[in-house]
């Protein structure tokens, strides 16, 4: 039986949350919710929903890279947005990020996100898609 393995990322900022950025288990990488927060400064992205989505995806990409994976290994994403009116803006950035790859996805409007962020994204990726 394979043991679970924590995936970490290097960041200057200190995250006080009791969770790992990613956890490998059962042939999958489970990526914790990544806010639209710069991990080095611990400040939210500046600008609107599109800039916040870009920042959250940058962090998601850092977790994937730390696990030796690429965007194409992502099977599912959950995107939480602070207002449903952001849907078009975040969808455009998401489409640019993933290109032809189209993971399963849900977008969930929520009343508020931590630190005043407008976007949070979590994902599940398939380890067998790792670059060799």
Classified by CATH, the class is Alpha Beta
The level of helicity is 10-25%
Instruction: Tell me what the CATH architecture is.
Output: 2-Layer Sandwich
What's the number of extended β-strand segments? 6
Strand line-up of the largest beta sheet: 1-2-3-6-4-5
- Low-pLDDT segments, ≥5 res: none
* Relevant CATH superfamily: RutC-like
Beta-strand share of residues: 25-35%
Q: What is the overall shape? A: globular
C-alpha Rg, in Å? 14 Å
User: How would a textbook summarize the main sheet?
Assistant: 6 strands, mixed
Overall residue-averaged pLDDT value? 93
Written as H for each helix and E for each strand, in order along the chain, the element string is EEEHEHEE
- By DSSP (H or I, 4+ residues per run), the number of helices equals 2
List the helices and strands and how they pair.
Layout: E1 5-7, E2 22-25, E3 28-35, H1 49-66, E4 74-81, H2 87-98, E5 104-109, E6 119-126
Parallel strand pairs: 4-5
Antiparallel strand pairs: 1-2, 2-3, 3-6, 4-6
Helix pairs in contact: 1-2
